Amino acid sequence: MDMNEIKEIFFQECEEQLAELESGLLKLNDGDRDPETVNAVFRAVHSIKGGAGAFGLDDLVSFAHVFETTLDCVRSNKLEPTQDVLKVMLKSADVLADLVSASRDGGGVDESRSRSLVKELEALAHGGSPSSSGHDAPKPAAKAAPAPVAKVDLPKPSDDSGFQPVPFSFDGFGEDDEPAIEGSVYEVSFKPRRELYSKGNEAALLLRDLSRLGEMSINCDTDALPTLDKMDPEASYFSWKISIRTTRSEDDIRAVFEFAEWDCDLEVKLAEEASSNEELPMVPVPFDLSILDDSAGGEDEEKTAERGVSEETVAAAVSAAETASNVSRTARAAERKESAAAAAAAQNNAAAAAAGAGQTIRVDLDRVDRLINLVGELVINQAMLSQSVVENDATGTSAVNMGLEELQQLTREIQDSVMAIRAQPVKPVFQRMSRIVREVADMVGKSIRLVTEGENTEVDKTVIDKIAEPLTHMIRNAVDHGIESPEKREAAGKDPEGTIKLTAKHRSGRILIELADDGAGINRERVRQKAIDNDIIAADANLSDDEIDNLIFMAGFSTADKISDISGRGVGMDVVKRSIQALGGRISISSRPGFGSTFTMSLPLTLAVLDGMVVTVAGQTLVVPLTAIVETLQPEAAAIHSFGANQRLISIRNSFCPLVDVGRVLNYRATQANPVEGVALLVESEGGGQRALMVDAIQGQRQVVIKSLEANYTHVPGIAAATILGDGRVALILDVDAVVAASRGQSMKPEMSLAATG
Amino acid sequence: MKKKVLTVDDSRTIRNMLLVTLNNAGFETIQAEDGIEGLEVLEGCNPDVIVTDINMPRLDGFGFIEGVRRNEKYRAVPILVLTTESDAEKKNRARQAGATGWIVKPFDPAKLIDAIERVTA
């Protein structure tokens, strides 16, 4: 793994953290005051900052830092997370997301926006916590050497003269001249307290590090050591006086004791050259680092015993002082030998526990796609094989047939499993929508909350990728046109804050996405008038409420009197509808004046396979998506009623349903077929109405692999896609909605021209 | 024998960086994702040094350090704290909990190895 891969992981993690951040903030917005929610939000920003720092993404770090500081105020209850505060934070989360994508993909961000948010965040942090002064400049480095901080906390040197040692460097004077005696001599007095050892620090290691700064001599003061019976093995009894000649500064010397400075008495002072050489109070002894080479506790103890505590060698003294840690080390060493196997087993468990936390792997999407393609071919191949076996063996009882059946089942299972790999929750798309709601509502001065449900509903990744755009458009529409202004809402006796509800759920092998607003609903009078004005319907057309509502999906239809910035970007609901249809989906609207509108999208879970009914129409083989079919029936002559010039109805259980001759609509034949000779497929079209599709015969039900017609040929009105059947022939998959729409008297013309231009 | 390092951090990015850095420097690395898991993994993994983050879900770095220091068997293991903040308060709290030393983020491989060398023999 190299840094680029880790960076990729970082950006993936950012996505997750941003999602976490947003959902946490939204929870807080809903009144959740669970400290863990606040913590999770804080952690999300903190993690992004931490990773960004490692990659030197300074813009990201500095913004995250300010954001984090403000969040910390919330976390420590210095700042109440009111709606206003959260508004700023949600916006900040958006900017943070922009910064992340700018860091990943290049490109800029709206600097003025982020700057003004930085100010707002800082104002919140300061306003909320007048006492907190810890707003260090948001520099990514945070490299301030700890030494200066430490100085404040350290006991001042006993020297009252106020003498300040001046660190100086000889770098400027040719080093070769007097290398041996360069530097100045410092006297370091070091007395550890017991806490130093209990926190895992070791005097010997500190002295070892110090010895790397220059040539030094050490004296150990063992006077405080009590007799063995009175000795506390975990206490600290020794202190050291070190005289070191170094070219480094006093700060460098103190930096060695950085980790220990709270747990020891430390004095560092520049010694006067003469006295340090001649008047050392104690006999200098060489510092023996050998004890550090072997960490086996037993030996250390032996050494200690041999040399005796009175012997004035640093090594022994350190060993004795170290008894506390040695004891535990010895215990550890002993145990290591005794139960090596047990420890190994435990270690395995631990590793397993570590691995069990997240049992996922990341796979390149291309690989999955290749697999899906191959499985698609496998399904076709298996179907062809079945067919040729059936053709050559009419008995249908042979072992080959049994095997084939099993093969079919296995193929199906493989296909389902592969599809499951691509399945993803719709959550990320839904979360993106909440940002859009926020931004658009801000722009138009409305107050709107987005409620999401069923975010964990899974659907094929390609569907997710392609749903975002139409959904965004619909959300913008709902905010801009659907929800009324707060004043109007209040006048109508509604909550001034509008609600948009986004729901996802699985329904009979498809995913259903609902977008409901509690706005004013469709103004049917206006829609109708507009449709007449735009020549979409005849002035005297008799349309049901549902049909009027669905007029908004017509090409060239827009009720907005003026084109607005937000939703009037030259794309109407017809484009939304077309992109949904391109996904093999349907969209419809239901609306209650005064109570709002609900858009319902029904989408296939995958774009790769389809359960279909294979039928013949005028000698052509067609596939009708099974999800569209409600029932099939054999029409009787008595049930068929003529209506108008060319229309026919079929009566089914006391209700009439328009009969659609598929062969006629698709121009396979010039005259209408006799319904009694064919089969009727009762389908539900997106408007909610039922139609009976007339076909000549049903061949059977089959799972087919969808091959895009547009990608390989061109869009054909009334046809959704193509597939390859078991016998190797290409069959067209019927676009039921388009066929139904094409047959619908009034709306036939625009609908067909829409399809033709698509 | 390779020195064994237990790292505790909830960020996948940092975990990977630690892993790469420590493995390149010849350490054996064991990783946990939060304080609770850290304490679980600690049993039986017998590390020479522990490197832990502060902000983590379930059990944060302070709690984790306290947990290690209460453990009879492992209380003497040096613990280094990974901290983004240079502010003394966090460092102090980590020290009070029993941290041996700290590494100030942004993550720098050289600083990490240096700090580990400083607290281990």
From TrEMBL, chain A:
Could you tell me the keywords of this UniProt record? ATP-binding, Chemotaxis, Kinase, Nucleotide-binding, Phosphoprotein, Transferase, Two-component regulatory system
Q: Which residues form the Histidine kinase domain?
A: 405-607
Q: Where is the HPt domain?
A: 1-103
> What is this protein's name?
Chemotaxis protein CheA
Recorded catalytic reaction(s): these are: ATP + protein L-histidine = ADP + protein N-phospho-L-histidine
Sorted alphabetically, which PANTHER family does this protein's record hold?
Answer: CHEMOTAXIS PROTEIN CHEA, SENSOR HISTIDINE KINASE CHEA
Phosphohistidine modification, residue list: H46
Give GO terms: molecular function aspect only.
Answer: ATP binding; phosphorelay sensor kinase activity
Species per Swiss-Prot/TrEMBL record: Neorhizobium galegae bv. officinalis bv. officinalis str. HAMBI 1141
Q: Where is this region: Disordered?
A: 125-160
Class of the enzyme per the UniProt entry, highest EC level: transferase
* UniProt key word Phosphoprotein: yes
Enzyme Commission identifier(s): 2.7.13.3
The task this protein performs is described as:
Involved in the transmission of sensory signals from the chemoreceptors to the flagellar motors. CheA is autophosphorylated; it can transfer its phosphate group to either CheB or CheY.
Automatic annotation (TrEMBL), chain B:
Q: Locate the coiled-coil region(s) and give their ranges.
A: none
Sorted alphabetically, the Gene Ontology BP terms of this entry are: phosphorelay signal transduction system
Name of the protein in its database record: Response regulator
Organism for this UniProt entry: Aliirhizobium smilacinae
Q: Which InterPro entries match?
A: Bact_response_regulator, CheY-like_superfamily, Sig_transdc_resp-reg_receiver
Pinpoint the Response regulatory domain residues: 4-120
**Which Pfam families does the UniProt record give?**
Response_reg
Q: Which residues carry this modification: 4-aspartylphosphate?
A: D53
UniProtKB keywords: Phosphoprotein
